[in-house]
Amino acid sequence: MTSTSESIGILEEAQQRAKSLAERLGIERAVLSAPMTGTAGPELVAAVSAAGGLGVLPTGGMTASEIEKAAEKIRSLTDKPFAIQIRIPPKAAHRPQDLHELAEGLAEVLKGLRLPDPLSPEGEAFYDFASTREHETFDERFKAILAAKPAAVISTSGGFREPEAEALFDARIMNIGTATTLREAKVLRAAKADAIICQGAEAAGPRSNFEDSDEVLTGLMSLVPAAARATRLPVIAAGGISEGTQACGALLAGASGVMAGTAFLSTRESLASPYVRNVLIWTTAAHLTLTRLYTGRLVRALRSPLLDALQDYEPRLPAWPAPEALMGPLTEAARRQGREELEAVYLGQSAGRSSWRTAREAVEALSKYF
């Protein structure tokens, strides 16, 4: 049996790891907000940072100019450090024909949302099926991120190549990668990452896997200690963390900090729609499902009439990111137009366990024990 003094020693070690990571990032509390595209805007990023944590700006779908403007907005709201996320462009290229069946099944829905037919010339130009824009603009967007001088840059769906890693090192910007497995954590260490976000199976997603299948659903309590031991790098636990006790548990398992997404959705600074805010009141893990329909990768999402109607298409979906090129514009248009039954709601396993009114409340609650 572990003695009281040993237990206290383990807790103090965890608290020291959190303190060291916070000091390295120039923040007070080792709590990061997840880069949630569509819901984590400059206001939420700034509010998390102002509360002593590290707000993370997502850049999915943004141009270099939009990144610059978002960073300027954050700096106008707070003088505290913040981070910026960027996705490593996918290697796979797809054509509209790869989504022929799904496009036909969604024809009336797309028409109702006033979106072009994916199989038409207009649709081929509108939907980025081959991720051409993401590939062609990566260097430009990365330069815009460097110019913004964030405290850290977070890569998802892979690690940075040597030129980007060296640029971050020269700029004294922390290079943080995202891993879903122990193997990926080791790859990120070899790619000169300074810290690693361990995305557990409990997370909303999308899964940020790049070496292993998204079906390797490793939970935080298995992934965090293994990654911390193997890499000797600071590990940030992400996935299903919405309370201080869960954050403390992650630190005791070997993490140096935590990242939360769903826990921030209810705050007044988030861009969550009224529908999502209502969902957060009553939803539990039982209302969620794992699906590839939205992106081609597993996400944990609220069950909906749209998902139910498209269930038969899932086994024949092309690989990520092809479905995202079609479903992304669809679900965004649904959100703008108030079509609740079509809205994509990604939630972690602890959905419904917190209802923080402000980002400050959430940061303080999550860091209560460290």
UniProtKB/TrEMBL annotation:
Keywords on this record?
Answer: Flavoprotein, FMN, Monooxygenase, Oxidoreductase
Q: Which GO terms describe its molecular function?
A: nitronate monooxygenase activity
Q: Which InterPro entries match?
A: Aldolase_TIM, NMO
- Out of the domains of life, which is the source? Bacteria
- In this record, what's one Pfam family? NMO
* Coiled-coil ranges from the UniProt annotation: none
Does Flavoprotein show up as a keyword for this record? yes
Q: Which family does the similarity line name?
A: Belongs to the nitronate monooxygenase family. NMO class I subfamily.
Protein's UniProt name: Nitronate monooxygenase
Organism in which the protein naturally occurs: Sutterella seckii
